[in-house]
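Let's sit down with a protein and look at its sequence and fold side by side. We need material for that, and I hope you will provide a protein of your own picking. Once you have written the record down, we can walk along the chain together.

***
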Amino acid sequence: MSKVRVAGFGVSLDGFGAGIEQSLKDPLGKRGPEMFQWFFHTKTFCSMVGKEGGTTGDVDDMFAQRSMENFGAFIR
């Protein structure tokens, strides 16, 4: 049987991985993207979505880089 490794998954301090009312239209739920504001400005995220720039050398990008290492596939 195959094994699944979950990585690069954000969780809020109170234990939530998404906002309320998740749907196909809002996969992170209402206000869910607020949990990832630290990530959106990093070079790691910008590279993932085909954009130039982004911050490097700060704690956010270093953590983002480590959490995305050795990914074989992304589920969107």
User: Anything to note?
Assistant: The two ends are 23 Å apart (CA to CA). The first helix runs from residue 37 to 40. The helical segments are 37-40, 43-48, 59-67.
